[in-house]
Amino acid sequence: MRRVHLGPLQASPEITDGIVDFMEISPENWINVGGQRRQSFRTLTQRLPFICHGLSLSIGGPSPLDQTFIHKLRKFMDQYQIRAYSEHLSYCTDDGHLYNLMPIPFTEEAVKYVAGRIRQVQDMLGQRMAIENASYYAAPGAELSEIDFITSIIDEADCDLLLDINNIYVNSVNHSYDPVEFLAALPAERIAYGHIAGHYNVAEDLIVDTHGADVIGNVWDLLDKAYEFFGVFPTLLERDFNIPPIIELLAEVQKIRDIQDKWSRDGSTLTEPKTTEHAAEEPTDEKRRRA
Question: For residues 178 and 180, what is the distance between their CA atoms, to the nearest angstrom?
Answer without folding.
Answer: 6
